[in-house]
Design brief:
The complex is a heterodimer of chains A (255) and B (219). Chain A is mainly alpha-helical and 255 residues long. Chain A has 7 helices and 2 strands; from the N terminus they run H-E-E-H-H-H-H-H-H. The chains are: A mainly alpha (255), B mainly alpha (219).
């Protein structure tokens, strides 16, 4: 009896331990944050840290690649020129001929989101242990995506008001005043859909990879990881393209 | 993992009842139901009771903790949709990044690319212009060739004329010479004729006298 109980006891203990161990190894800590206090406000430190890294990567590589531009471009310069051409192309197709001033905004959106997403998939953040929470792509946090989406909203309002003055608000009763509520609603759904699309995709991708890794540690997660890289790129492109489309939409004439 | 997600989806995780309180009633039940069946001494009973107490409490604890929702007790409330100062900080970081990238990447590289485009276009136009230049050069070459040909033909004509004149001169000279010789020969002939005529004249008188003598012997 005693022995039996003990064995059950140890078995259960082992079970608990292995389960705990699994969680320790593979656990993505969803919604866990490392908090910093700044002036009485809380901050998700892991997001701030990773965003610094992303910004450092972007600025550093840009400085190194284009500090001394050649007429016949070197490899890295060629890559950066290609990226700029790509961004210009996206802005031009969405905004139209007056795309010039918006290239920095669209380009920074695309590059920041793209590098953030790929850093989440490629950089071994998990090596660095935090006392609480864990490092991941900055776009994994709703704060980041909402910040970017709100900036996009501000940008397209600014674009419209700058182009047409107060006449911009005339678009709310186009084509008929009956659509006024829907047009107003659109201003809320745009940032909402932008932010949640990005946040959901990146979080879900990371979760799927982690769950698969915890179930089958080798080979099987690789296609999903590649799919994750693909999705990350697509999401960055979608965010930038939609932002450009919103800006273009608010700038175009509707008379 | 699934538990965590489940837990995160619930806004308020209900704390599972603490282990000590739930374990106790079970222990009492086990004491009352299981212990009387085996006949054992007090000592054994005490030993057994402590061990079973331990193991049973573990069973109770584990069964509780392993149940999906109660695992979340170990995990704090997941804050997936928690907004705080991170949002404005990221906004500020993004704007700073935008200005920095604009200064070191978008504007200079864009300007550089545009300049290069303009330069290449200008060079291309230059190339188109040189085709006109080539035509001009060709015309020039043709003109030079024509001039050279004219010069050569002129020289040729001149030489022809010169040689012809020379030839004619020599011809005329030869003719003159021949004529002079002819004249001389003719003069010689005339002279000889006159001489013979003179000789004949003197002989004629004697001859005629001889003839007359022969014909007229009687005279």
């Amino acid at each position: 009896m005693n022995v039996l109980f003990c064995s059950i006891n140890t078995l259960l203990l082992c079970y608990i331990n292995t389960r705990k161990g699994l969680y320790d190894i593979s656990g993505v800590e969803v919604g866990q944050h490392l908090y910093w206090q700044i002036g009485g406000f809380q901050v998700h430190a892991q997001v701030i840290i990773t965003s610094w890294v992303v910004i450092a990567i972007l600025l550093g590589s840009a400085i190194i690649a284009v500090r001394n531009p050649q007429t016949i471009p070197t490899d890295s310069q060629n890559f950066f020129e290609y990226v700029l051409e790509f961004i210009r192309d996206v802005s031009k197709t969405q905004i139209g001929e007056e795309y010039g001033p918006w290239v920095p905004f669209i380009g920074t959106l695309f590059l920041f989101i793209f590098v953030s997403n790929w850093s989440g998939a490629l950089l071994p953040w998990k090596i660095i242990q935090l006392p609480h929470g864990e490092l991941a792509a900055p776009t994994n946090d709703i704060n980041t995506t909402v910040a970017l989406a709100l900036l996009t909203s501000v940008a397209y309002f600014y674009a419209g008001l700058n182009k047409k003055g107060l006449g911009y608000f005339g678009k709310y009763i186009q084509p008929t005043p009956i659509l006024l509520p829907i047009n107003i609603l659109e201003d809320f759904t745009k940032p909402l859909s932008l932010s949640f699309r990005l946040f959901g995709n990146i979080l879900a991708d990371e979760l799927v990879v982690v769950v698969l890794v915890s179930l089958v540690p080798s080979v099987v997660p690789i296609p999903v990881m590649l799919l994750g890289l693909f999705t990350s790129g697509i999401q960055a492109l979608i965010f930038a393209t939609l932002a450009a489309a919103y800006i273009g939409e608010s700038m175009e004439g509707h008379h | 993992m699934a538990n965590m997600i489940m837990a995160s989806s619930r806004t308020l995780v209900t704390p599972a009842p603490s282990l000590s309180t739930t374990a106790k009633p079970k222990l009492i039940i086990s004491n009352s139901t299981k212990l009387p069946t085996p006949k054992i001494t007090k000592d054994q009973f005490l030993k057994l009771s402590t061990s079973t107490l331990k193991s049973l409490s573990f069973v109770a604890a584990t069964s509780l903790t392993l149940a999906p929702p109660s695992l979340a007790v170990e995990i704090e409330k997941a804050a997936l949709f928690e907004f705080n100062l991170t949002l404005p900080i990221i906004m500020a970081e993004f704007l700073i990044l935008m200005f920095a990238l604009d200064k070191i990447y978008f504007t200079p590289v864009g300007k550089f690319m545009d300049d290069r485009d303009a330069e290449i276009r200008a060079k291309l136009n230059d190339v188109k212009d040189t085709s006109g230049e080539v035509k001009q050069l060709e015309e020039q070459a043709a003109a030079i060739l024509k001039a050279a040909r004219a010069e050569i033909s002129a020289a040729l004509n001149k030489m022809k004329k010169e040689t012809q004149a020379e030839v004619e001169e020599k011809l005329a000279e030869g003719r003159k010479k021949v004529e002079a010789e002819l004249q001389e020969a003719l003069a010689n002939l005339e002279q000889q004729k006159e001489e013979t005529m003179k000789a004949l004249d003197s002989q004629i008188a004697t001859l005629s006298q001889e003839i007359v003598k022969k014909v007229l012997p009687t005279v």
